[in-house]
Amino acid sequence: xxxxxxxxxxxxxxxEALQLKQDLPQLMTPAQCAEFLQRSEEVLYLWRxxxxxxxxxxxxxxxxxxxxxxxxxxxxxxRVQ
Length: 81
Fold this sequence. Notes:
Helices cover 60% and strands 14% of the residues. The chain is α+β, with helices and mostly antiparallel strands.
């Protein structure tokens, strides 16, 4: 792959990342996070229980929030090449 193609792909990835950050709030509810990850809220609950999912903030006994950047980093860490 030539240098120009690599640069174009890198720019496209950066643009997509910026668009994603613009579309998602910094702190997401479980419903917003589930929609973003295309999973159910029940799956997010199980992941929290098993400590296998994305990091989350346990604000109160009834309030859980997900930091957008943490979720993106967690999702990228599961990329298979």
